[in-house]
Specification:
Length: 433
């Protein structure tokens, strides 16, 4: 039967996403200098305060406070009237080293498994579908598109919607046919923080709603997916002036469904941001997405779910599962497909890190608008390298600016399509790539 499905995204200015971006910016700063650094960095943001906590073992020298302020500044919290300001907020750092009991299971040559073991137990999921060009479910793909464009307007075309502030949330409901095909956008709920640019709140509300309808949505939602019956609910309370960390405390890792598939696929429960790639919560979830996306693009199935599970300290997964939801184009059971994939892909953490080049500073861009469904591209990362020299007059700190060219979102590449087609004896014309 026909049905509705809804997913939500939040903007880079949402308190939880502020926290995610700070955690991942710290991770990037460490990996730029020390690719083998172990990082589990948690961030809390609230009115006038940032708290950094967690476990970090590294040879890198980084300025945690300045990294946090730079992220907050770039997001757009740079004025005192927002009650959370990059220049004046307090930053408290409470970070210690990784537990040696965890380290011995992850380090090569230590623990029961001498290979680089998984940083924790758990199960991770990857998913892909033909619904959108991103190989993502349409509700979450559209919600991300709307908020990315809203942020672009705020930062680069402020004359169009000059009242925008950083915090925002978007919820998209798609109506599906009896066969599960996306039919139309049923409802869009958009709450966006704004300046108080008129005395009457109704005047403010009407202006924002009209701008969303006429400026924002036509840029990102195909016209054929919107009709006169579509419900558009903009700032349903009537106003949204106070927002960000002043209105709501933010924590790293609280938006795991936003980060993945909008609730369409299961989630193992482990957050991504602030974690180095030895944590399979992150790296194995990326690998599972990579396999699922390439399977769909290769024509093996129209919809694929991958699950992989690990035990802490062991390199080989303890379980691997494939579900094609009856959409497979090959005459194989899902368990047979899984067996063939295990021969094709190495799922040891060290192999995943090497395959996807996850020991690079590539994580800050993932921390807003979704880790999946993004475009892989080259990115220049600039960082400050600091060394201390001992001189007769005392220690001397020498800093230099360095750059790295890295590929962000490598798990979104379709470079496994041809090997998959060969492994499953598929014709290239089945590929959706």
């Amino acid at each position: 039967m026909a049905y509705l499905f809804t997913s939500e995204s939040v903007s880079e200015g949402h308190p939880d996403k502020v926290a995610d971006q700070i955690s991942d910016a710290i991770l990037d700063a460490i990996l730029a200098q020390d690719p083998y650094g172990r990082v589990a960095c948690e961030t809390l943001v609230t009115t006038g305060l940032v708290v950094l906590a967690g476990e970090i073992t590294t040879t890198a020298r980084v300025d945690y406070e300045e990294i946090a302020r730079a992220v907050i500044r770039e997001i757009g919290y740079n004025r005192s009237e927002l009650r959370f300001d990059a220049e004046s907020c307090g930053v408290i750092t409470t970070i210690h080293r990784q537990s040696p009991d965890i380290a011995r299971g992850v380090n090569r040559g230590e623990g029961l498994d001498l290979d680089l073991g998984a940083g924790d137990q758990g199960m991770m999921f990857g998913y892909a579908t033909r619904e959108t060009e991103e190989y993502m479910p349409m509700p979450i793909a559209y919600a991300h598109r709307i908020l990315r464009e809203l942020a672009y307007i705020r930062k680069h075309e402020p004359h169009l919607m000059p009242y925008l502030r950083p915090d925002a949330k978007c919820q998209v409901t798609i109506e599906y046919t009896d066969e599960g095909r996306p039919l139309r956008v049923h409802t869009i709920v958009l709450s966006t923080q704004h300046e108080e640019f008129a005395e009457d709140w109704r005047t403010i509300h009407r202006r924002i709603e009209e701008d969303v309808r006429t400026i924002l949505l036509p840029r990102v939602i195909p016209a054929e997916m919107m009709d006169a019956k579509m419900r558009l609910l903009v700032n349903p309370t009537g106003r949204f002036v106070l927002g960000g960390p002043h209105a709501d405390t933010g924590l790293t890792g609280r938006k795991i469904i936003v980060d993945t598939y909008g609730g369409r696929a299961p989630h193992g429960g482990g957050a991504f941001s602030g974690k180095d790639p030895t944590k399979v919560d992150r790296s194995a979830a990326y690998m599972a997405r990579y396999i699922a996306k390439n399977l769909v693009a290769a024509g093996v199935a129209d919809e694929v779910l991958i699950q992989v599970a690990y035990a802490i300290g062991l390199s080989q997964p303890v379980a691997f599962y494939v579900n094609t939801y009856g959409t497979a184009h090959v005459n194989l059971s899902d368990s047979a497909i899984a067996e063939r994939l295990l021969r094709l892909f190495d799922l040891r953490p060290a192999a995943i890190i090497e395959k996807l080049n996850l020991a690079a500073p590539i994580y800050r861009p993932t921390a807003a608008y979704g880790h999946m469904g993004r475009k892989p591209e080259l990115h220049t990362y600039t960082y400050t390298h600091c060394v201390v020299e001992q001189t007769p007059n005392g220690p001397k700190e020498i800093t230099t600016q360095k750059t790295l060219t890295v590929e962000i979102f490598p798990w979104e590449k379709l470079d496994a399509v041809e090997p998959i087609q060969q492994a499953f004896a598929l014709e290239k014309n089945l590929s959706h790539s």
